[in-house]
Amino acid sequence: MTLRQRPGSLPPLSAGQRLRQAANLVNGSTLLGVAVAVAARARLSKGPRGLLLAGDYRWQLPFARAFTLGNVVLCRGPAEDLLSLPGLLRHEEKHCTQYAWCLGVPLIPLYFVAAGWSVVRTGNPGTANVFERQAGLAAGGYPSVDAAHLGRRRVFPPRPVWPSMPGRRPTRFPESRG
What we know:
The protein has helices spanning 15-26, 29-39, 79-83, 86-101, 107-122, 130-135, 137-140, 145-152; strands spanning 43-46, 52-55, 66-69, 72-75. The longest helix has 16 residues, at 86-101. It contains 8 helices and 4 strands; from the N terminus they run ααββββαααααα. By secondary structure, it is α+β, with helices and mostly antiparallel strands. A 4-stranded mixed sheet has the order 1-2-4-3.
């Protein structure tokens, strides 16, 4: 594990960012994130706004491109790739704040309940998930509620019609009556 940082490249933290960082350290969620990063042999580096970035995460689960444990954002590619996606980084930062509000690790089962509810409602684990909605669906790569409902709606093609002869009204297939 190496913690990389470019000297002087990060601005000082705001009071809210320091509070979130301290809360997630005290509630153990950041320590869990560091432990997972070390176990998965991810490369840790300091990120903006008090975040720790764990790049090159290789474990199969979860399936997401990036996910958060406390103030640690784990991502599949190099941390530099995550830095080049400011919308996704902000999305994951909002999850860091959710860890602080939920007192750390209790966020994990709450998140899974919300994801299950979202699957039941929309067929997607993020679309109706209160945590993903608060963090920003589009930034996290989730479809909006409208798009999810359109994806689940069954759209049937129009009923087939027999070819008509000149002067006759078209008739429908007998099995399509209803």
